[in-house]
Fold:
Amino acid sequence: MKSLVAKVALIITLVFAFQALTGTFAMAAEAQTQKLDPLLAALASFVLPGLGQYLLGDQAKAINHLLIYVGIWIVSVLLSPFTAGLTSFLPVLWALYSAYDAYQMASK
Structure:
């Protein structure tokens, strides 16, 4: 299980690094001039933390939100046998915060 989690985290990191090198983030920055509906941004970030921030053009914050989400998920999976599943709600809390942050960003 641990090796699967490590592989998923590595794949996500490599995808973001590839996108940064190929200029995908630059295209998203150009699309930032378009206004995104705050509810759509919040929903996107709730489904995948960081996606709303990415769509709004803040790539650094998007990467941070996604990596923190993956880290929280990994820690909660590793600790769940010891905490009787009490840590399973932590990824959901981070997704809610990410959605709130994307909503605030789109409302400005």
